Write the structure tokens for this entry.
Amino acid sequence: MKKGLLLALCLMLALPTFAAAKSKNYKLVLKLSHVFSPAEQLTKSMDAVAESIYEKTNGAIEIQTFPQAQLPAYKEGVEQVVRGARFISVEDPSFIGDYVPDFKALYAPMLYKSFDEYVALTQRKIVTDMKAKAEKQGIKILALDYIYGFRNLITSKVIKTPADLKGMKVRTPGSKSYIDTLSAMGATATPLPWGETLSAVQQGVVDGLEGSEFTNLGTKVYEGRTKNVATTRHILGTCGVYISTKVWNKIPENYRTIIQDEFTKGANDMVSLLKAQHGGVVKELESYGVKFNEVDGMAFRKALAPLYKEQPGMTEGVFQAIFDELDSMR
Ligand code: X3X
């Protein structure tokens, strides 16, 4: 009996040393994929977070970043995560909606009046419950608030009401959330990867697109013929950071803490930066000839109202629960 206790005690004392040795010799290379261009803040933020994680783990965790859809992106990027690849997908939450439909409600149009409202909502139980559902689907969500700005209509023609969009082909990302939103707003939603978007505008394949001022400036949309921005603020453009639970759970805990802390810090820093920069970005776009115009907000909100109806797989009452949380903040 005594021998057994002695052995157990020795093992308990030796465990931390084994764990430290294991994490000391541990090395993991992850590939991080997104669609943003080098000049956009999201790209800079991802690079900064990856560098900080590498330094703080003494090189044990190496995150190689791949912008502009050099690797699988959008739906295909999330599929890599679900398949258990050593891969981090950075996409908006609508692409998680294919696995946990409630994320389509979180990314529904015209919900948020500010970046802060959305950030606060992501801390509430309704969203932590959504994240738990995502983990059951094999997706660990490290962040949801890499916000890149409210998406507005960017067209050659001045748009003020849904009627003005009739017959206009407007490029959107490929998720159903965008297609449904732009269709409800009155446009002919035309899904294209970002990489094909500017040439499609130039060649008249589409009549316009929608995106934030940070996208407009960062990808030089303003250089084209779409010089009119209708301030619909129809979707709050934000990206989440997703990794396979299978990969995540095998990373030593001390490194998981560093990874999580750095992605959280990176999102907080990016939100603060873009809030401070937005006014200057608008002025810079105006200096390039971009014209901003107000829209009939009520008309667009009325057009979008049918979208706040639970879709198959959504939690019953999820929209009302989101409305209630937002009302509690206002
Ligand atoms: O999934 C991430 C974003 O929602 C993608 O939005 P998209 O395809 O309009 O790209 C935004 C640009 O800023 C990329 O440079």
